[in-house]
Amino acid sequence: MLPQASESRLYTFSTETKDHLRKFRLTTSRAKGPQAVIYMIDKNTHEIRQDEDKTVYTSLDEIGDDLPDHAPRFVLLSYPLTMPDGRLSVPYVMLYYLPITCNAGMRMLYAGAKELMRNTSEVGRILDIESVEDLEEIPDKLATE
């Protein structure tokens, strides 16, 4: 339990961000199509917050268009799938986007916040991706839970 304590002192969430995380999780469980939001860490204040434009993405392509080439991000994704037996599943996951080209300082900053973000957002699992191209494999990865 000690690592959680040090993580929560280093990184912060505004009340607005915590409220948004909860609301997003609850509303996406009933969504008919994919929904995603991108979160970043302010490298000066260490506040974890939604990207500036606060877009809710409805396709993996849209997410790919907005992910930076050289900086990590956390992407919260709700992705409805029809399972082989016909039932609907709506996995709620976090994509941990860590491009190979990002610097060591940014890697450390995001690596330190990964579990805190997972716990605060209450996602079911984390999928690591290194490039925008990796987004194409997400539906297959989610279908093989």
From TrEMBL:
Keywords associated with the record: Cytoplasm, Nucleus
Q: Where is this gene product found?
A: Cytoplasm; Nucleus
Q: Where is the signal peptide?
A: none
Show the CDD domains listed in the entry: ADF_GMF-beta_like
Pfam families annotated for this entry? Cofilin_ADF (PF00241)
Question: What region holds the ADF-H domain?
Answer: 9-145
Q: Tell me its family.
A: Belongs to the actin-binding proteins ADF family. GMF subfamily.
Protein name from the UniProt record = ADF-H domain-containing protein
Identify the species of origin. Answer: Neonectria punicea
